[in-house]
Write a structure and sequence with these properties.
heterodimer; A: alpha/beta; seven-stranded mixed β-sheet; B: Aconitase, domain 3; Aconitase, Domain 2; 3 domains; five-stranded parallel β-sheet; globular
Chain lengths: 196, 461
Amino acid sequence: MQKFTQLTSTIVPLPNEDVDTDQIIPARFLKATTRDGFGENLFRDWRFHPDGSPKQDFVLNNPTHGGAVLAAGRNFGCGSSREHAAWALYDYGFRVVVSSFFADIFRGNALNNGLLPLQVSPAFLHQIFTAVAQDPTTVLSVDLEQQIVRIGADGPQEQFDIDPFRKVCMLNGYDDIDYLLSMKEEIEDFEQAAQP
Amino acid sequence: MAAKTLFDKIWEAHVVKPVEGGQDVLYIDRHLIHEVTSPQAFDGLRQRGIPVFRPAQTIATADHNVPTLHQHLPIVEPLSRFQVDKLTENCREFGIELYGLGHAWQGIVHVIGPELGITQPGMTIVCGDSHTSTHGAFGTIAFGIGTSQVEQVLATQCLLQKKPKRMRITVDGTLASGVTAKDIILHIIAQLSAAGATGYFVEYAGSAIRALSMEGRMTICNMSIEMGARGGLIAPDEVTFEYVRNREFAPKGSDWEKALQYWQTLHSDPDAVFDQEYYIQAEDIAPMVTYGTNPGMGIPVDGAIPQVSAEGGASFEKSLEYMGFAPGEKMLGKTVDYVFIGSCTNSRIEDLRLAAAYVKGKYKAPNVRAMVVPGSKQVEQQAKAEGLDRIFAEAGFEFREPGCSACLAMNEDKVPAGKYCVSTSNRNFEGRQGPGARTILAGPLMAAAAAIAGKIVDVRA
């Protein structure tokens, strides 16, 4: 997993609420057996017509907006547990998704892939959308170490929460699996003790 | 000793070690895998050069991708075939039992676990599928995980997890005639919203829950994720024990007696405290249908689609526009093009019996294509033994072979763009049943009635 420490980037606004993982990556694109290339079909049916031509009114097809930060409405990533949703966002180039509320499984999947699910207050999220609407070149600065997110060079800022264990993993690029593998003996002891 | 919830009791029994920062190393008793979310996990093991730690606690089946006709023939769609073949190869290489196509126990992963007795009270169960919450019906902690976590469980039989908060939803009273378990859970989600239980694990309790069969309880727990909960569970009781007894992998003889003794301790203590509690009166629940594009957008079948709320108005409008509905409209009488009876929510024998009893001697409306997809080979065989397949055929319904099918349309079973499908599945998201498809969620009885009438009707009428 890639490390995440800090990032300053322009913002792609997607104010829709309850964006489910079927929208992020529709089920028919889950047939790959590797982790690569899902970005091509990110938001497939919002982004393209059935004939493959781009839908001009969708934000990813709007040249005004771009960047490594996706700002989305509340309850982002609800629905299916498909990690392909996190892979698709990352593969497309996003490194941070900012929302006022994330679905549980998506949050975990994102953190396991170096994609920061950044939860802010509804008011702060509103400020982000307003700032981007006024000036699409507005940047968002995220400092994971300090747990601070700021709009623009000297705009409003907010402290954000992240599980301390997950923070260490993100900052250092650690996978859970390395940690769990280092615990083999304790796991075997647990199995022995749990035997009836 | 402090009073504990059922959830606390099972969780604490599975903590290998608490980790700094509020996470626990949680031991997983059973790991279910399928073809879609596992290949990258096996690749990860290969790259690290490590084996599956406890292959005997891992069970595989092919369900998401499989065709529901001619399963004895090679899969036509090349990508699906490749993925299913990959699962077979991976299971062979890593020593995992596979109930794949052609096996008498093949079926939807959340149908076969319980029916084989793999799912037992007090266990922790995970699967790379959000509807793993289904198994909570047996008093287990069961939840969906991502592929990185599938790899972790394959490698170590453990996960790093933060303990969720506890919620209890009590449903007391008696359901009206024509109201089923599906209506209870659609009613609950409509009350709490699609995000209302995020961060929680839900215990369902109360006399209306107790009165349900295991099939009904599975339907309820299955949809816990649709209100954001990681999982839901129900304390095991005589109904549970009778269901598990004598199943293939259930404990036998003195092991059974010992297990039963433990299982009888699995309930929330009377004074256990929950972080959040809701009470629902069963008599207030009507047959439900959804009108929008998330499972929280449900109303009683005789109700009207709500007006746009100030908050989240744009998303609500977008949703109605997708569905081709307007605020204030009635759902009763809406024309239906497709009916799908199946999925891990409602494809068990009881669901099929309920639908068959309604359609017996009737014939589907000419404008409707109706499909029944049993949840497993065993359900399919049982239905045939009871003559349900003939009843469906005589009513103009297609009776197919088991798989996830039109619930997520990864195989050929798709609903065309713009068409309305009354579906017994769990998600009405945009495009879930095929690009542009419009899904109306309902229970099996309501779905059967819609197929016969060719429109949304109230089964109570």
